[in-house]
C-alpha cells in the first residue's frame, strides 16, 4: 500500500509527464549550503557583468522558504527544446532555445496546470511556479532533484538526453518523496572548455558570464566591445557552442512541442537576408519569440558586429 507521500509523488510525476515534461524530480526545500559560497564568489569576481539583477535577493536565491512560506518541496521539471531541423549553414546563428514561442509562456502555462492538478487532487496546497524569471537557482535544484549533474560548462547534463532543455520549478508547501542525487559523468572531457569561442569557461564548472557570447548578444545593452570582434563565431543571439560539442548531446532527441517549432522563414534565411532584415520581417519571424528581448535594434547591432 502506498503511503500518502508516495501516492502524491507518483501522481504529480505522472501528470508532469502527461503535460509534456521530459522529466520531473523532487528535492527537499532547504537552504542551498554548497551554492552559497560559490554564488558569492562568482558575484565578487564580477562574473555577472552588467546583470545587476544577479546581485539582488541573494537570500531568496538560496532559500526557497523565503519565496514560498513554509515550503517543503521543490519540484523540478525539464522540457525538451531540441529542434528536428536547424538553421541554414550559411546563416548567422540563433540559439536553438529561441527558435519558437518564448519558453516563459509555454512553461508557465504547463506549470499552472500542474499546480492546479495538485490542488484539485490533494487539496489546499500553496505553491509558486518559476521559469528562470525569479531568483531561483534552477540548475542547482534540478541537480539536487536527481535530474542530472552540472557539467563543466555549468549547464545541467543527463546521460539520456544531454542538455537541450529548459528547467522550471514548482515550490510547494507539501511533503513529498525526494529523489537521490545522480553522479557526474564529465570525466576528463574538456570539449566545452576547449571550444568556447571567447574562453568564457575560465575553469571547469565556472563560467565568466561577462565573457559569454549569450551575455554580449542578449544581456549587454551597451555597445559591443571592439576587443571581442571576430570571436562570436557568427552567433547573433545566444550561443550553443558548449552544448553542441558536448558528447552527451549525441543523445538529444527532437522535442514534440508544436509551440517550439520555428517560423518557416527562420531556417531558410541566409546572412544576406539577416543583413537586410526589416522591422516588419523581425516582427513576423519573431512574433512570440524570446528574441524580442533584444529588440530589432539589438539584433541589428549584433548582426552589424558580425559583418
TrEMBL record:
Keywords: 4Fe-4S, Cobalamin, Cobalt, Cytoplasm, Iron, Iron-sulfur, Metal-binding, Oxidoreductase, Queuosine biosynthesis, tRNA processing. Its cofactor is [4Fe-4S] cluster; cob(II)alamin. It is found in: Cytoplasm. Pathway: tRNA modification; tRNA-queuosine biosynthesis. InterPro entries: 4Fe4S_Fe-S-bd, 4Fe4S_Fe_S_CS, QueG, QueG_DUF1730. One of its GO terms (molecular function) is epoxyqueuosine reductase activity. TRNA binds at residue 221. Catalyzes the conversion of epoxyqueuosine (oQ) to queuosine (Q), which is a hypermodified base found in the wobble positions of tRNA(Asp), tRNA(Asn), tRNA(His) and tRNA(Tyr). This is Epoxyqueuosine reductase.
